[in-house]
Queue: 2 jobs
Job 1
Amino acid sequence: MVSLFALLGLFAGALVNRLGTDLPTRRRVARPHCPYCGRDRPWWQWVSLPSYVIGRAKCPYCGAPIRLRYPLVEIGMAVAYAYLWALLGVDVKLPLYLVYTTVYAIVLITDFERRLILNAVMYPAILFAFVAGFITPEMTWWSALAGGGIAFTFFLIVGVVGNAVFGSGALGEGDIKLALFVGLTTGFPLVIEAMMLTIIIGAAISGLLLITRLRSLRDYVPYGPFLVAGGLITLLWGYAIADWYVYR
Ligand SMILES: [Zn+2]
């Protein structure tokens, strides 16, 4: 079963690649095609990993290489899906968490590549998480709503204050919608942990980038990936981390 979920993740990764590329351009989501010559990819390249493995990771018509992002996303999704199966097994949470992971993967791609967190992704995701709050075990609908409300309000305030202090802020509307999604999926009280992890990871990585002079204070550092990290870590190991923190 683990390999079945890994395979499922591989295909989901191919779909995520497609959405991450097509959605920001507001084009209709197209069949996989070469971005250079525009011709459709042959079916055996719809998932890019096999072409990489056999060393033919390029367009058979014009020879343009397939970007490394494609196999990396596919491998990441395969590992994530297999891990979720191993962690949860047959559980109501399994299909929900598979969807959440897929949403996070698309957000990571568009935020890293274009500094965009799309409404076309976030609105359906928020609606899904809201409905899922009613059926998630170990969570009540009010806990999901409270989680969403707390995360939303907190990042709204951070965004408004950030704008007032630094001019046009580092924290955009997309980040605030993503925070709402993180809150809905983790619920209260775990949302507090998710926010703390987001801030700690954000501060640590920003600090590291400053020290290594890869970024200066004025440079833009996307906050989306930190929210994804905080939300995902809490979703997977939230109670374990809380236990360790309280009882160590
Ligand atoms: Zn081509």
Job 2
Amino acid sequence: MNYRHAFHAGNHADVLKHAVLLFCLEALLRKPTPFAVLDTHAGRGLYDLQGDEAMRSPEWQAGIGKLMDWTDAPPLIARLVETVRGLNHEGGLRLYPGSPTLIAEALRPDDLLMACELHPEEYVALRRTLPRAANVQLHARDGWEALSALLPPKQKRGLVLIDPPYEEPDELVRSAREIGQALKRFGHGTILWWRPLKNASILDSADSEVNAQMLATGARETLRADLWLTPPTPDGKLTGSSMFVINPPYGLDTALRAVLPALAARLGAGASGWRLS
Ligand SMILES: C[S@@+](CC[C@H](N)C(=O)[O-])C[C@H]1O[C@@H](n2cnc3c(N)ncnc32)[C@H](O)[C@@H]1O
């Protein structure tokens, strides 16, 4: 486990993932009944964009750094920018939230966050970042194993964020398989699955596998949003990212359609693009 998210925090991929996450949380908050969120690969929860790791090759400058002064940003992005401003109350851009921070801040007292982080140092940092609260459960455990151990939640509604580091060559295939299992336990939950965009046809076959597994569960709809800064290259380098959403909340497709063209134009330099399907 060499992956450290601090090198990538606030980049274009985080921006897309976290904007979609905030939209889904807001949709859950519209109903008074409590919900649960399982964050299978949580990270440390808060990132210092001026720290050594983030400054090594400051990916955030081409991500959240390009969005902070977007005065007429569509709501999907405006919400994230507002949240990041709230963290940096002294002005400027130093702190960037990870997924468990965004989730924990959205919770009401009866809602629940279950966040898993397997790397010992990242787990300790996560523990330091998040408040000790009855509705925040932190687990130093394998997020894949948590999909069967912690689902379905007793709240019966909610979402699962699956955001692995893709260090292992089979992690995309594994994710598709594990999602199939998770759907058997929590078929009506919303699942947010982040994937690196390197090779579109590999992603297409992972989507087909999940779609086939969905037939046997209560899950019905999917939405895929891709954003790339440059077109995929034969060497398979990361050029963008893809969010695959199972059981998306009402209005997410419209919100993404309103933002993706402008976001691609703002983050890319002419060769960027997007897809929504
Ligand atoms: C992409 S980062 C997560 C970023 C975070 N979800 C966010 O949006 O802020 C992936 C994290 O998963 C952790 N990790 C790797 N393998 C894991 C596993 N099997 N179970 C739980 N966490 C794992 C890594 O240490 C890393 O912190």
